[in-house]
């Protein structure tokens, strides 16, 4: 005996597929490695515009709990030596805003258990890097007789 499906069942199948796709995507967006954590935080970072501050390098130390929320108070541990007080202030604000935007981070259960309470040093590099000068090696120069 063949059973005919009514109009309500035709909507149920696509709805079920959408729910399954959404839950699979949500699971795929969970952070599972330390690299994932750093990349996620860098995606939230918005450096101040050049009209407000010159580019500097800055590093923050932050710890998270199992659920990905900030544990304690983040600390700035490095700033470019030549930066002005205004540059430092603007970049400190930008780093703290990035942390606020991103947290709590969606840790997997395994990552949450592994990193809970441990400090992360997260560098934010905005200065342009100068290429290293070409090293001259005397033993590689052609010998002229």
Termini, distance in Å? 100 Å
Our estimate of the beta-strand percent is 15-25%
| DSSP E strands, number | 3
- Give the strand order, joined by hyphens, for the main sheet: 2-1-3
Mean pLDDT: 78
By secondary-structure content and strand pairing, the structural class works out as alpha+beta
Structural account:
A hairpin with a 5-residue loop joins strand 1 and strand 2. The termini are far apart. A three-stranded antiparallel sheet has the order 2-1-3, covered by helices on one side. The chain is an alpha+beta fold and 145 residues long. The chain contains four helices and three strands. The protein has a domain of 74 residues. About 13% of the residues have low confidence.
Give a quick summary of the entry.
With 145 residues, this protein is of the alpha+beta class. It has four helices and three strands; from the N terminus they run H-H-E-E-H-H-E. The protein has helices at residues 7-28, 34-44, 85-102, 109-115, and strands at 57-64, 70-79, 119-125.
List keywords for this structure.
single chain, 145 residues, alpha+beta, 3-stranded antiparallel beta sheet, 4 helices, 3 strands, extended
